[in-house]
Amino acid sequence: MANETTDNSRFPDGFRILHGKQEYITYREHSSVRIWASDVAGHYDNHVHSAIEVILLQRGTAIYQLPDQTYRVQPGQILFIPSGCPHALTETDDTLRYLLLFEPSPLYTLQDMPQVSFMTQHPIYLQDKTDLREQVCHQLMEAIDCYFQKKSMWNTQCYAYLMQVYALLGRQYLDTAAPHTPAARKRIDPEIMNSVMTYISEHYMDDICLSDAAAFAGFSKYYFSRVFKEFAGVSFSEYLLVKRLNAASNLLIRTIQPIHEIAQSSGFGSVATFNRVFREQKKCTPTQFRAIYGTMVNADINMPIFHAKEAEN
Q1: Which residues have CB under 8 Å from 116's CB, separation 6+?
Q2: Torsions phi, psi for 247 (to 5 deg)
Q3: Which DSSP helix (H) or strand (E) runs through 240?
Q4: Do residues 222 and 233 make contact, with C-beta atoms less than 8 angstroms apart?
Q5: Nearest CA to 108 among 224, 266, 262?
Q6: SS3 call for 78
Q7: From its phi and psi, is residue 63 left (phi > 0), alpha (psi between -120 and 50) or beta?
Q8: Domain enclosing residue 65, as ranges
Q9: What is the pLDDT of residues 43-101, one digit of tens each?
Q10: Number of domains in the chain
Q11: Whether residue 213 sits in one domain with residue 251
Q12: Cα dihedral 31, 33, 37, 43 in deg (nearest 10)
C-alpha cells in the first residue's frame, strides 16, 4: 500500500508489492499472517488484496474509504476489511495502531464456517463498546503478542486466536442475521442447509450445479435458489465460485501442482475457464499469483524501504 503506481518494499520477513491498485502481500516462509504496529501516520491510495485486513486502533483516527461507505475508526474500535474489497486508508498524525493481514483460506477449512461465509464477505465494524468488542480485542491482542514473539508454531497459534475471533463474530452474526419472520423461519431449516454446505465442501471439485444441490436438499431448483440466497446471503453460483477459488488459491500457494491439475481439482471445467475466472476475481493470473506468493517470500532482492514505520524485529 503506497502512493506510487508501483511500489516494491522489502521488510525483514517479506515484501509488500503494489502494481496499480492490486497489492500482493507476501509472508514469511510457511506463514500467511502479517502484523504491523505503527505510530507514523500513513496514506494508502485505493488498493485491493487477497488478505483480510483488520485495524485495531489505540490512538488517533484511521479513515477507511470503501466503494460505498467511509469508516472513521476511533481508539478501541475494530474494522475488518474483507478479502478483495477495494479500500483506501488515511491516518491522522497522532495515530497508533495495529494492522493485521491474513489469508482467509485456513478459515474456510472449518466445517461450520459455511454458515457464516457471507459475514466474511462484508466489512465488520465493531464500533460500540460491547462485550463482543472487548472479547474480539482480547483475542486479537493475543494474536499480536504471539506474532511478535515468533516462537515455534506461531503462525498456527495466531490462526487459533483468529478462529476464536470468527467464532465470536459468527455466533453474533447467526443470532442477528437469522430470518426474522415466521414464514422465513419455516422456509429455512438450519440442519438441512448446514448439510447442503457440507455437501458443497465435499463436492465443489466435481461438476455440481444448482440442480444437484437442490436435489440433495429435497427442494425444487427454483425454491432452493431462493432459500439458499436467504440463508447464505449470496447465490449458489457465487458461493460455489468462492469455494473453488479459495481452494485453488490455497493449492497455488502451498503446493507445486501444475496449473491444469489445480484447475481440475478445484472444480473448474478447463484451464481456460480457470485462468479467465481467476484473473477476473483476483486481478492476476494463477501463474502470477503463485509466482508472487510462492517465490518472492524467499527472494533476496534490494528494494527500497517502505515509508511507514514497521515494528518487527
Answers
A1: 166, 169, 170, 173, 174
A2: -65, -45
A3: helix 236-254
A4: no
A5: 266
A6: strand
A7: beta
A8: 6-177
A9: 888 877 778 999 999 999 999 999 889 999 999 999 999 887 888 999 999 889 999 99
A10: 2
A11: yes
A12: 120
Q: What is the DSSP letter of 116?
A: G
CA atoms lying within 13 Å on the CB side of residue 33: 26
| Radius of gyration, CA atoms only, the chain | 20
Question: Which of helix, strand or coil describes residue 88?
Answer: strand
| Domain annotation covers residue 301 | no
Dihedral of the CA atoms 99, 103, 149, 96 (nearest 10)? 0
- Please provide the distance, in angstroms rounded to a whole number, between the alpha carbons at the two ends of the chain: 21
154-176 in b/e form (b: 16+ CB < 10 A) is bbebbbebbbbbbebbbebbeee
Which domain CATH number covers 272?
1.10.10.60
8 A C-beta contact, residue 294 and residue 255: no
Q: How many degrees, rounded to 5, is the angle at CA 204 between CA 51 and CA 186?
A: 95
The Cα-based distances of 238 to 179, 201, 232, 241, 281 in angstroms read 21, 14, 10, 5, 11
Which DSSP letter does residue 79 get? E
Burial of 18 (0-12, 13-18, 19+ CB in 10 A): buried
Query: Which residue, chain included where needed, has cell 472513521?
Result: 72
Q: What is the DSSP letter of 129?
A: -
At residue 74, the 3 state secondary structure works out as: coil
Tens of pLDDT along 184-233? 445 567 778 878 888 888 899 999 999 999 999 889 999 999 888 877 77
CATH number, domain at 90?
2.60.120.280
Per DSSP, 302 falls in state -
